[in-house]
Amino acid sequence: MSAIDNIGANTLSSNLKSILPNCDRIDALVGYFYFSGFKDLHNELKDKQIRILVGMDLDKNIIVKLSSLKDFNLDSHVVDTSITSRTGAKEDYIENFSHIFNDTD
Q1: Above 80 in pLDDT, residue 49?
Q2: What is residue 40's DSSP assignment?
Q3: How is 4-38 classified by DSSP, letter by letter?
Q4: Among positive and negative, which fits the CA dihedral 61, 62, 68, 72?
Q5: pLDDT at residue 56 in the model
Q6: Distance between CA atoms of 18 and 68, rounded to whole angstroms?
Q7: Fewer CB atoms near the end CB (10 Å): N or C, the chain?
Q8: What is the DSSP letter of 2?
Q9: Whole-number mean pLDDT of the chain?
């Protein structure tokens, strides 16, 4: 496979859409998780075992979307902190992600 440069039809999305039908599970390590990217691939991800390890940023729009679901409220997990160091960012991320993960079904 050649380099994916997002020029013309050579996009990450189109390459993943051609690969995913041949997969039964997906493991992804990403720097950021944006719901729009997941939404773009949702048909190709149906019936797959998916594990996503997110780096240091979580799209706040996903919290808004999840909060709009009936009986599902993550308002208490939305935080606005000022990070003063890389270690502080990591600690805040782990703490906040742990709360979301542990406090929801």
Answers
A1: yes
A2: H
A3: ---BTTB-HHHHHHHHGGG-SEEEEEEEEE-HHHH
A4: negative
A5: 61
A6: 32
A7: C
A8: -
A9: 76
Contact 26, 53 (CB under 8 A): no
Q: Model confidence over 6-37: pLDDT tens digits?
A: 888 888 889 889 999 999 998 887 777 777 77
Return the C-alpha torsion angle 15, 46, 43, 45, nearest 10.
-20
Contact of 37 with 26, CB cutoff 8 Å: no
Q: Are 45 and 26 in contact (CB under 8 A)?
A: yes
Q: Which of 16, 33, 18, 27 is nearest to 50 (CA)?
A: 27
C-alpha distances out from residue 91 to 9, 32, 47, 82, 96, Å: 39, 17, 33, 12, 9
Residue 73 scores a pLDDT above 60: no
